[in-house]
Every structure is written in C-alpha cells, then in structure tokens.
Amino acid sequence: MSYPKQNDMHHTIIIPHRNRNRHLELCLWSIARSIEAVGVRHVEVLVVEHGSDVKPTATDRRVRVIVDERPMPAGTITTRIGTVKHYENAFCKSRLLNLGIEQAQGDVITILDADAVVGLMWASGATLLSRVNIHRVCYRVRYIEKGEVAGLLNAEVDRDEEFNRLFRQYDRHCLAWEAYGHPAKNAFDSHAQPWGNSQFSMRRSDIGDLRFDERYIGKGLEDIDFNRQVYEKLGVAFRGVIFTQPDYAMFHLRHDYDQDRWSDPAFQIANCDRYNGRLE
C-alpha cells in the first residue's frame, strides 16, 4: 500500500454540530492556531450541521459548513429497565459523521467533537499516518470545567495566553473515559492496543466502506461500535497510537445546555444494549 507523502497529504477534519456555536467557534480557532503553528497544508474542516437554532457560519477559507436538512429519526424505544421513550428529532451524530465522510476530500480523516479544543501541535498528529504503518491515531482527552470554559469564551480574554496556561497544566485536569481496549472482548484497559475513542484520525483507504451505525441515538457508544467494525475489518493486523503529550492532545469543554436531547438515560441504555447485542 502506498501512503500520501506528508507534504502532499490532504487532511479532512469532520465536526458534527448542533447548538454548540460558541464552543464551535473556540474549537475552530484552536484548530486554525495549530495548523498555522505546525505549518501543515491541504487541510479542510467540514462542520456537518443539523437543527441548530442559529446555523454556524464559516469565515476561514478552510472551513465548509454542510447542512443536513433531513428530519432526524423518530420512534419509540423500550429499555431493559422498562422505560418507554417516544422521540422525534433526536440527534443522530452517526448520520452527520457519515455525511462528512462521504463529502471529505482528504487522504486522512479526523473525527472531532464541536465542544473540543486542541493543543498547539495537534494538527501534526495526523501526519503520522503518512510516515508510519499504523491505522489509527488517537488523542487523549481531558475536561475543562464550566467555570474555566466561561473564561475562555470571554471576548476580552487573551486566548493564546489562556490556552498556553491550560495546556501547561493539562495533567491536572480530569481525564475523559478512554475506550482503548480490545473491541471483541469489551476490554477497556489503558495497556491494550489503542482502538480509540471518539477523537481520532484514520486514512481514508483504511476506513473504506466502514460507516458509523445510524441506529445510535443521542450520546454514546457510536464511536465504540465503530471501533468494533475496525477490529472486524483489520483484526490482529491493526496498529494504533495515542498522543498523550498535552500539545498533541485536546480538551473537552464541559457545559449543561441541550442535554435532554443528547444525554437522555433511555437513549444511553438503548445504545449500550444495542452495542452488547441485546437489541436488534
């Protein structure tokens, strides 16, 4: 297999979005800061949007907003604890990710959440896929608490200074759940091969016809299901790495808005059961 040379590598970053405008603006700022710091070329950012009260706009020539106008899923689920949930317009992150994959022009695809911010060297992480025979690059995620997030969103704050401070203190922040275990065994220990969480880069050729399962509604497990698909495709040949160094890693920004459509416990139970094979 031939890989794109680093200087010729085209990189697509896909960001699914709904009602995260203020956090998205900070996310895009951090990406642009990293791109310029490491000097990578041929980068496009696809913001795949559905259902926001205010549609995001792009001012950076590298950013393209794709709007999915189709209605989101509607239906009824009954969970194993007896909860019956009727839903409509439930957020389907998987569908937006799949739409982004279909429209991506890059040799390498990165999946990134709209409420994430990245370190200064982060944009160079994906270039490892042009130099080394690995299949996935993952990025450690820690959390910034809501009080510090409010400070970052303050228009009067010197963002460069604040980001430098936050990433210098990276290891003091809470570590996000890292699902890096063996998908076939549901083993999520940090010493296993890094199959990845929801923030990762892969070559387009390795993704191939793999897509996120659009039956996952709301928040959770669609990324772990994708990991299992990767395992089923690549098996023991799979090789992955995780960047844990602060400047190559990222933060999630904690917030509490719009949670009823993202973190509904009934959705999470149904997603867990689907992943574990208890639901068709």
State the main characteristics.
280 residues, alpha/beta, seven-stranded mixed sheet, three-stranded mixed sheet, 12 strands, 27% helix
Folded structure, characterized:
The protein is of the alpha/beta class. Helix content is 27%, strand content 20%. The chain is built from seven helices and twelve strands. It has helices at residues 21-38, 93-103, 146-153, 159-168, 204-207, 222-234, 265-275, and strands spanning 11-17, 43-49, 63-67, 74-78, 84-88, 108-111, 116-118, 136-139, 141-144, 200-203, 240-243, 250-253. The strands form three sheets. Strands 3-2-1-6-10-8-11 form a seven-stranded mixed β-sheet. Strands 7-12-9 form a three-stranded mixed β-sheet. It is globular and about 50 Å long. It starts with 10 loop residues before the first strand and ends in a 5-residue tail after the last helix.
Quaternary structure annotation:
single chain
The count of DSSP E runs of length 2 or more, i.e. the number of strands, is: 12
Can you list the strand order of the major beta sheet? Answer: 3-2-1-6-10-8-11
Task: Specify the number of helices.
Answer: 7
What Rg is obtained from the alpha carbons, in whole angstroms? 18 Å
- Provide the structure class: alpha/beta
Report mean pLDDT, rounded to a whole number: 87
Which residues sit in consecutive blocks of at least 5 with pLDDT less than 50? 187-191
Q: Name the beta content range.
A: 15-25%
